[in-house]
Amino acid sequence: MSNGYRTKPILYEVVVLNRHRITMFLCALLSAWLPGCLWPETLEPPVANALSGNVVDPSTARVAGALVLLTGDATKEATTDASGHFSFSLSPGKYHLVIGASGFQTVELDELVSDKPLPVLTVPLPIATESEVVSVNAADGASTSADTNATALVFKKEQLDMLSDNDATLQQQLLALAGGDGEHPPQVYIDGFTGGRFPPKSSIREIRINQNPYSAQYDDLGFGRVEVFTKPGSDKWHGSFQTQGNDRSFNSRNPFAGVQPEYHTLYLDGNVSGPLNKKTSLFLGGTYNDLQNNTVINAFTLDSNLAQTSFSQAVPDPQTSKTFSARLDRQLTTNNTFLARYEYNQVLATNGGVGQLVLASEGYNNSTTTQTLQLGNTQVIGAHLISETRFQYIRTRLQQNAIDSTASIVVQGAFSGGGSPTQNQSDNQDRYEFQQYVSWTHGKHFLRGGARYRLLRDANVSSANYNGQFTFPDLDTYQKTLQGIANGLTPAQIRANGGGASQFSLTAGQPTATILTGNVGIYAEDEWQLRKDFTVDLGFRFESQSAIPDHVDPAPRIGFAWAVHQGDKHPAWMTIRGGYGIFYDRFQPTNLLTANRQNGISQTSYFVQSPDFYPTIPAPSSLTGVPPTIYRLASNLRVPYALIAGISAERNFGKIGTVSAMYLNIHGVHENLSRNVNAPLPGTYDPAVPTSGVRPLGGSQNIYQFSTDGVSRGNLLIVRAQLNPAKWVNVWAFYLNQHANSDFGIGSTFVSNSYNVGADYSRAPWNITNRFFGGGSFKLPYGFSIETFLIARGGRNFNITTGADNNGDTIYNDRPAFATDLTRSSVVHTSLGNFDTDPLPSQTIVPRNYGNGPSYISLQLSISKGFKFGPRPPAPPPDPAAKKGTPPPGKPDPPFEFGFSAEAQNIFNRVNAGVPIGIVTSSLFGKSNSLEGGFFDNSAANRTINLRTYFRF
Q1: Nearest to 135 by CA among 886, 914, 895, 908
Q2: Where is the composition biased (Pro residues) (predicted)?
Q3: Mean pLDDT for the chain overall
Q4: pLDDT of residue 264
């Protein structure tokens, strides 16, 4: 079936080749804005009597295994190789070209005259609708194209079935598979844009993970990238509707919870798609999700008699969400297509922030509404130039209301109670993104370039910490404080008995703050096929961000691929790939917002050491003698970046599948962290004397500074296999071994020693030594199918702290020492060893992230069955792009399908405990008080069984 894409002879007469690829690339860039621009007439023409080209998809990735049929004075047939390339030798005459590939629309090009110079064509294949799919076998040759690295994962059609039908679980699975280096969360692109939310699985056409990792087009790390492409409309009206859910009777209980309130989940999803006219198609979808969940609290508190007691409670934390989306695809001309997509999403949540050590009183309710508009235009300019223009606008409105407005109480390692420290908040974000990309093929060069600009406006109103917060180092101190108050003791007597809060903080002043920040990225790259078996990729990217001191961020990239011993008559033994590049991590706008608001003028934060007025909340006017704490950016702040070098080996076993292994070395420089740059100098602060300590800038003011002084180093080994040993079996596996060290945490966390950042250099908090993911899809008799997804990984590490501020920097992240004198009163005996909470200068401080958490193993299993019914439509005519000898297609399936499925998460009911408590003075030290979350969205159960029914037409 043709999509109407036909070219005129003039397109091939005005476009000729040039030996000087740099000059041509500049002309290609110019043509993106001036379509009438002609190539210079003095350029050298190509060799006549030959036709060659490259077949690409809408994202300009190469399409392997496409069938190419040439008819006219002679008839020829070919299949694109693994890098999407085809070529013919022609006798003079006129020809008609037809190109078809599985999952794409067939494209026709006519009036090709071989006695005139014919350039190397770049043929984009539009995505096929359901009735336009062509069955094509993949090419057998090894590809050296940057888009076909076997270390990537691609899910479409049957492969998507292996993933969860629950959208929240699906998202967690994809983020886990992306892996990355652990430090940076995986970056998600929705139809080429960042910042959007995951669409429902029913509206996803294809998912690509970690494809073309060294591309200069992307600003973030090449590994840890998830690209999601939504479905276009169809040429006939189709639709699907499904409902799924469960209640507590289907699930096993949470072993960390006692009596639980009733809970259930209900998920509704529907979509329709079809043509508005011959050139326009529409896709409409909507979802409704009702998650009546419970969150579990396991803490230590005081009872009515002020005796220490364990406390367990399951608190309802329901969440509902609804989504509506619409996508319009319009073919403006034969060479110009337009896409528009709109999405509305609203999430309502109750009792947010509650769980583990956080009591129900600290909960809050919030509402988040997000609207997304995406516009895209793709133009085919000439025979081998593609221009893509995209625009995205995301409007987010958040409202948060605290349940309790009393002061927050933090008892280290025991519980957090009182009012929520975040209190009320209103946040209005407007995000804009503009992209202009071009791609062009010139002989053995595949050139790409363009620019991307993002702009964020964030207007925020926050009363965080306006209610004040008291901090106690442990439950014993809190108990003695309340007992002293009950017995009428004075604050001095309470503190003499070992009671009293260790710190009080309060924020006052102007609650509003607004920031405007943008960043730009410009890139160009050349995929140069030096030989049939060797390709090199050369790229350069330049980035800049506003509102910070650093504005010049160059990012060179280089990669190569070598198909070892590949010849015309025999496949390659293996493909070796390697690369090196610099990848920047943009400075977070939330830090800019904090520095803008808490500058000591607009908003003032007070910290009082060893306060004697608990539980009274002093008026801000009474704290004028306390120097305010301020946030600021370091004057030498740099944008963090990582230097990544890697090499991989890929082995193709034909139709059976592929196996690959990759090694990565990652060195992070100028990483984000926070410091108190006016903290007391080491050795000058005495916790018994709150006003003690010599500060380098004088006075007693705390100055929190966002700095980029951190470093990290990591090594990763990644092994991946995807196998199809039989038509009814599709299995894959992904293993990652990691060793990473750093002197900073995730985000802009505070260092434990502001004057020696290196003191925190040890295992990185994201370091998980072993991770394994595997899955399979099995087609069974009578139309049944089984899908599996296995997750197995080592435990997360955790930091061990004293629960006190030992150095006077007002940050509670100080670590104990390994005890050398067990007679000291400051020594705590634990299952992990003996630790001294008041370290001596001669003692060794416990390394950061010294503790090891439990491992995680979970198997997902689903079984499904569909029933097709209705009158069969007539068989389609033979496909002109089909290979010779291919049997004609049979009658299509009936138009209607009804089916059901059952999906179980953690089918073996293994208890996957969460990260243990790391405060040595806690009764829960070294113990987990919750399940490890992340891979399914029901914290009330240990194993869940979800039932689903669907109808399609």
Answers
A1: 886
A2: 871-895
A3: 86
A4: 94
Which of 110, 132, 154 is where one domain is finished? 132
Taking only the tens place, the pLDDT of each residue in 10-29 is 222 223 223 334 334 444 43
With beta carbons less than 8 A apart as the criterion, state whether 502 and 113 touch.
Answer: no
Q: What is the 3-state secondary structure (H, E, C) of 729-770?
A: EEEEEEEEEEEEEECCCCCCCECCCCCCHHHHCEECCCCCCE
* Domain membership of residue 417 as a residue range: 238-680+688-815+850-863+904-952
| Residue 81 token pair | 């190789």
Chain centroid to Cα 860, Å, comes to 21
Mean pLDDT across the stretch 499-520?
96
Does pLDDT of 492 surpass 90? yes
What CA–CA distance (Å, rounded) separates 529 from 561? Answer: 9
Contact between residue 527 and residue 146 where contact means Cβ atoms under 8 Å apart: yes
Tracing tokens 């403006």 back to the chain, one arrives at 332
Angle CA 179–183–188, to nearest 5: 50
Distances (CA, A) of 478 to 5, 196, 898: 75, 45, 61
Contact (Cβ atoms closer than 8 angstroms) between residue 265 and residue 938: yes
What is the pLDDT, as a whole number, of residue 890?
63
Tokens of 395: 């409007």
Q: If we measure between CA atoms, which residue out of 731, 748, 755 comes closest to residue 676? A: 755
Do 285 and 300 meet the contact criterion of CB atoms below 8 Å apart? no
How do beta strands 469-472 and 408-411 pair? parallel
Please tell me the distance from the alpha carbon of residue 584 to that of residue 639, in angstroms, as a whole number.
7
Number of domains composing the chain: 2
Q: What is the pLDDT of residues 789-821, one digit of tens each?
A: 999 999 999 999 999 999 999 999 999 999 999
Identity at 713, one-letter amino acid code: R
Residues 491, 617: one domain? yes
Return the structure tokens found at 128: 């096929």
**pLDDT score of 23:** 39
Closest CA to 827 of 842, 838, 814, 812: 838
pLDDT in tens, 542-588: 999 999 999 999 999 999 999 898 877 777 889 999 999 999 988 99
Residues 126 and 250 in one domain: no
Kindly state whether residue 194 falls inside one of the protein's structural domains: no
Question: Closest Cα partner for 362 from 464, 462, 293, 291?
Answer: 464
- CA-CA distance, 572 to 561, in Å (whole number)? 12
Rg (C-alpha) for the chain, rounded Å, is 31
Three-state SS at 735: strand
Distance of CA 297 to the CA centre of its chain: 28
The Cα 774–Cα 780 span in angstroms is 20
In the three-class reduction of DSSP (H, G, I as helix; E, B as strand; rest coil), residue 796 is classed as coil
> In the chain, pLDDT over 90 holds for what percent of residues?
61
For residue 495, report the phi and psi dihedrals to the nearest 5 degrees.
Answer: -70, -35
CATH number at residue 34: 2.60.40.1120
pLDDT band at 86 (very low <50, low <70, confident <90, very high): confident
Structure token pair of residue 767:
């370091």
Sign of CA dihedral 571, 572, 574, 576: negative
Band of residue 880 on the pLDDT scale cut at 50, 70, 90: low
Q: Is residue 630 part of a domain?
A: yes
Mean pLDDT score, 339-352: 96
Q: Which residues contact 166 (CB under 8 A, 6 or more apart)?
A: 244, 267, 903, 936, 937, 946
| In the block, residue with structure tokens 């060290």 | 741
Q: What is the pLDDT of residue 100?
A: 76
The answer to whether position 834 is within a domain reads no
User: Distance between CA atoms of 50 and 193, rounded to whole angstroms?
Assistant: 39
Residue 624 domain flag: yes
pLDDT in tens, 374-389: 999 998 887 778 899 9
pLDDT of residue 499 exceeding 50, the answer is yes
Residues 6+ apart with CB under 8 A from 878: 888, 889
Euclidean distance between CA atoms 98 and 953, whole angstroms? 30
The confidence score (pLDDT) of residue 771 equals: 93
Contact 906, 943 (CB under 8 A): yes
Q: Verify that 503 and 633 share a domain, yes or no.
A: yes
